[in-house]
Amino acid sequence: MASEIKSNGRGSVRLVLSYIIDWIIIIAIAAVGAGFSVATPNKRPFDVTDADISFPYVTKEKVSTGLLVAIGLVVPAIITFIVCLAVVPGPAFESASRSKIWKRKIWEWNAAWMGLGLSLAIAFMITSGTKNLVGKPRPNMLARCEPDLSRLLNSTVGGIGNQVDEGINLVSWTICRNSGSTLDDGFRSFPSGHSSFSFAGLTYFALFLCTKLAVTIPFLNYQDIDRNKQHVKPRKQAAAPPTYLIIFPLVSISAAIYISSTRYSDFMHHGFDIISGAILGIVSAWLGFRWYHLPISRGGGWAWAPRSSDRSFRRGIGLVTYASDEKSYDRNGRDLECGPGGEAVSDGNGTVRPYKTSEGSEGIALTDLDHVQPPGVGDSSRRSFQ
């Protein structure tokens, strides 16, 4: 299959085109988010005596939108590019040709950027759309509004007015002296865009660094436990990575936390808005990362393989994976991480061959990877799909 694809070229063109369309869809998702961001938001009624929306309007933000994009998108994109071209997943190849290694590096780079783009695009679209649908006033809403109290009765849309001593009146935005984009933006408090964008980009970046540097908590499979003696038999199966490596993902997450915290100190968002945005960003980052990358603990630093050329534009119903045309599998005998080809191959000393798929365009044969030891893989390489 792979040789046929490479010989006629039609399969590889179809494969490349399928990923170009993927990029177009990612950009389209971001474009929809941009359209949402400039739409007029719903303007939720508010109380002019509400202390929660009476904070001052700070015009000079600690983290501007431009700086947010630089930290959450540009910096991760540059560093992931450098890492993908400088680092081969697992130890260096001993037998693969230089051209085949570069093909793998270029694929890893493409997968890294697609995951980052998908994470940010999803977070941006959902955040922008939700802001306008909810229309929640920001903490500095009254400072933006500058309400004209002479319009109080005409602007009242709810509440109980003079029926109680407090005289609660919910008013519409028509009570405001100001209008335009400054006022519109005052109704975009939920969720925090800075929080969702920063956590989407920087959490993905942290996960990427963890998978490339093998920063993971050690684990043991259930096969490694001697159930009869009730103790862990192979103690040397795993060890904690050097502690200094955790600094890299920690810096990334800390940057996201700082950016989010400035939205509270700048009176731009309520606490719930910031937490909600952070959760949205983390979920988006996890989705973008796992869509294109193997699990950190068991993936050996690899991205998922390219789709099979024959499956580039077809649904995978009835198939094991989009990386192969195999239509059936033995649930108990196949290895999840080694792909549809079967069980992992080990030489008895912990050397494990990565899976081989029918992607063809990857350009690395199984024999080229005989000496690759994925980080974090111990002596027992079998990962049964249970």
From TrEMBL:
Q: What superkingdom heads the lineage?
A: Eukaryota
Mark the transmembrane ranges: 12-36, 67-88, 109-127, 197-222, 243-261, 267-289
Phosphatidic acid phosphatase type 2/haloperoxidase domain residues are 111-289
User: Region (Disordered) spans which residues?
Assistant: 336-386
Q: Does the keyword rRNA-binding apply?
A: no
Cellular location of this protein?
Answer: Membrane
Q: What is its main location?
A: membrane
Alphabetically list the UniProt keywords.
Membrane, Transmembrane, Transmembrane helix
Question: GO CC annotations?
Answer: membrane
Q: Which GO terms describe its biological process?
A: phospholipid dephosphorylation; phospholipid metabolic process
The UniProt entry, under CDD domains, shows: PAP2_containing_1_like
Name the chain's protein: Phosphatidic acid phosphatase type 2/haloperoxidase domain-containing protein
Give the originating organism: Letharia columbiana
Lineage of the species this protein comes from: Eukaryota, Fungi, Dikarya, Ascomycota, Pezizomycotina
